[in-house]
């Protein structure tokens, strides 16, 4: 059976239940709406799950014995935790859950707008939205869009830094209490040696997951945030080098494959952190 390679909405109407967002591959505006709506679903899951876990939380029992998913992360950020790692206030968890539910409604509305009211193809829209139309074979435009993504990721890294250094601090299992990180490690040798598994004067197969103090954790996020924002700005004003264009396949399928590969790599890194690092994921 011959399968058409022209994956447009019209060509695949009878396969929409199977091909997902692929039917929107040539509809930049509707694909944007789908991504915003998907972000809304993620926000809804986070908010609903956090509130559900609050209703089942037993404060005097370790969180890791209760099968909780999100509240341990919120506690590690210093929310609702007192001396000895004891949960003393569950209201922050509830408030954060509600904020996520409200955000999910806004994102959902934005997604529906782009799907049903906005221009199906961004270049046919009005205002600044036309700037973000893309063609899968246009490396310069794809670089611009990548740059904006990197900047937002960098801002997220710095929000974590601000929480640790300014807004209340984060939980440190080494002292079993919440504290401000006032002296983050900025030495690039110390930070980037973790990438090669070099830590504490020796080599370890755990790599980055071998970090054992919050000063290095926050210093690493300062470096990551700075590199992401600088890299994002560079991608916005430039385009891939000629050798990159020759070395990489540039189309929708290839870009999806690169993204999934990066996601898989980070999943393995995260699994190692969860399994072995008690500084970032306290028990």
Describe this structure in words.
There is one protein chain. The N terminus is likely disordered. A hairpin with a 2-residue loop joins strand 3 and strand 4. Helix content is 54%, strand content 4%. It is built from 9 helices and 4 strands, in the order H-H-H-H-H-E-E-H-E-E-H-H-H. This is Photosystem II CP43 protein PsbC homolog. InterPro entries: PS_antenna-like, PS_II_antenna-like_sf.
What is the general shape? globular
| Biggest beta sheet summary | 2 strands, antiparallel
> Cα distance, first to last residue?
54 Å
Count, helices: 9
Instruction: Outline the low-pLDDT stretches.
Output: 1-10
Number of strands: 4
Radius of gyration, whole Å: 22 Å
* Succession of helices and strands: HHHHHEEHEEHHH
What is the arithmetic mean of pLDDT? Answer: 89
Strand content: under 5%
Biggest sheet strand order reads 1-2
Give the structural class: mainly alpha
Keywords:
283 residues, mainly alpha, two-stranded antiparallel ribbon, 9 helices, globular, disordered N terminus, PS_antenna-like, thylakoid, PS_II_antenna-like_sf, chromophore, chlorophyll binding
Topology, element by element:
Blueprint: H1 16-19, H2 28-56, H3 71-76, H4 91-116, H5 139-165, E1 170-172, E2 177-179, H6 188-193, E3 198-199, E4 202-203, H7 214-237, H8 242-247, H9 252-276
Antiparallel strand pairs: 1-2, 3-4
Helix pairs in contact: 2-4, 5-7
Short description:
This protein has 283 residues and is mainly α. The chain has 9 helices and 4 strands, in the order H-H-H-H-H-E-E-H-E-E-H-H-H.
């Amino acid at each position: 059976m011959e399968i058409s390679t022209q994956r447009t909405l019209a060509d695949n109407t009878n396969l929409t239940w199977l091909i997902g967002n692929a039917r929107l591959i040539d509809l930049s505006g509707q694909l944007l709406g789908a991504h915003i709506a998907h972000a809304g679903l993620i926000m809804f899951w986070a908010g609903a799950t956090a509130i559900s876990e609050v209703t089942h939380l037993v404060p005097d029992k370790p969180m890791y014995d209760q099968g909780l998913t999100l509240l341990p992360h919120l506690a590690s950020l210093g929310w609702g935790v007192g001396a000895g790692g004891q949960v003393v206030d569950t209201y922050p968890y509830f408030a954060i859950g509600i904020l996520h539910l409200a955000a999910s409604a806004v994102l959902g509305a934005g997604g529906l707008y782009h799907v049903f009211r906005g221009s199906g193809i961004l270049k046919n829209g009005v205002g600044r939205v036309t700037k973000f139309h893309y063609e899968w074979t246009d490396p310069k435009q794809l670089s611009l869009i990548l740059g904006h993504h990197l900047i937002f990721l960098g801002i997220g890294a710095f929000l974590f830094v601000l929480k640790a250094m300014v807004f209340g601090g984060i939980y440190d299992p080494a002292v079993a209490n919440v504290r401000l990180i006032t002296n983050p490690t900025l030495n690039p040798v110390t930070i980037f040696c973790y990438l090669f598994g070099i830590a504490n004067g020796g080599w370890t197969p755990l790599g980055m997951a071998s970090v054992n103090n919050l000063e290095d954790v926050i210093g690493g996020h300062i470096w990551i945030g700075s590199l992401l924002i600088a890299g994002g700005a560079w991608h916005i004003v430039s385009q891939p080098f000629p050798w990159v264009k020759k070395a990489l396949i540039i189309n929708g399928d290839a870009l999806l494959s690169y993204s999934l590969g990066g996601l898989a790599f980070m999943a393995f890194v995260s699994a190692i952190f969860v399994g072995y690092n008690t500084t970032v994921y306290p028990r």
